[in-house]
């Protein structure tokens, strides 16, 4: 099967990445650098980049609502607004990806245990193979675990997780993320 890839940047909004109310996420500067590097490679390869923006972060137009300025989309790139943790629920994200004939998603963004996790899992049930960028997602501490533990836990739990056939691989940003390796495991 021919694989066609897109990069999905989930909720990399100023209010989450930098805070103060919802963030800042763990190692926020490193996260921004990693996402920029991955996105630059996508642009270099003419791979579509889509952004998901959570409407619950702040009022539309507020600085906290905006996608982080270092990650701001190009005018030609798709931004999908969502109201739930699931980037596909109640949005046209799946339709947008189908129009592009995408069957492999590289996923980065915030917050690990909520919107990133939901996007990864739901994508597999919709038929997409997923590559989660190991060092390309982040979160904040909670009452039980430190952010670093949450990230490590999700990298371990999501690696290899599948629904019937499509599944998730967790790979480092130093790898060739846009050449999927899923078929070598089938």
The number of domains: 1
Question: Uncertain segments of ≥5 residues (pLDDT<50)?
Answer: none
- Shape-level CATH architecture: 3-Layer(aba) Sandwich
Largest sheet: 6 strands, parallel
Strand content: 15-25%
Shape descriptor: globular
In the sheet with the most strands, the strands line up as 3-2-1-4-5-6
Q: Superfamily at the CATH H level?
A: Isochorismatase-like
Number of helices: 5
Family: Belongs to the isochorismatase family.
Organism: Brevibacillus agri
Protein name: Isochorismatase
Keywords: Hydrolase
Q: How would you describe this structure to a colleague?
A:
Pfam families: Isochorismatase. This protein has one domain: Rossmann fold (3-Layer(aba) Sandwich). It has helices at 14-17, 28-44, 93-99, 112-125, 147-158, and strands spanning 5-10, 49-54, 78-82, 104-110, 129-138, 168-171. The longest helix is centred in the N-terminal third of the chain and has 17 residues, at 28-44. Helix 4 links the parallel strand 4 and strand 5. The protein is built from five helices and six strands; from the N terminus they run βααββαβαβαβ. Helix 4 (112-125) runs parallel beside helix 5 (147-158). The mean pLDDT is 97. Helix content is 29%, strand content 20%. It is of the alpha/beta class and 186 residues long. The protein has a six-stranded parallel β-sheet with strand order 3-2-1-4-5-6.
């Amino acid at each position: 099967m021919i694989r066609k890839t897109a990069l999905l940047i989930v909720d990399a909004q100023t209010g989450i990445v930098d805070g103060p109310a919802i963030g800042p996420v763990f190692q926020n500067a490193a996260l921004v650098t990693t996402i920029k590097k991955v996105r630059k490679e996508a642009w270099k390869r003419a791979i579509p980049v889509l952004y998901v923006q959570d409407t619950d972060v702040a009022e539309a137009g507020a600085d906290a609502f905006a996608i982080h300025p270092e990650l701001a989309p190009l005018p030609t790139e798709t931004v999908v607004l969502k109201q739930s943790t699931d980037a596909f629920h109640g949005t046209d994200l799946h339709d947008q990806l189908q129009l592009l004939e995408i069957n492999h998603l590289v996923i980065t963004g915030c917050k690990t245990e909520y919107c990133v996790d939901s996007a990864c899992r739901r994508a597999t049930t919709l038929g997409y193979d997923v590559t989660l960028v190991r060092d390309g997602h982040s979160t904040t501490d909670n009452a039980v675990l430190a952010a670093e533990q949450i990230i490590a836990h999700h990298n371990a739990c999501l690696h290899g997780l599948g629904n019937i056939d499509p599944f998730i691989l967790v790979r480092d940003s130093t790898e060739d993320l846009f050449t999927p390796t899923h078929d070598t495991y089938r």
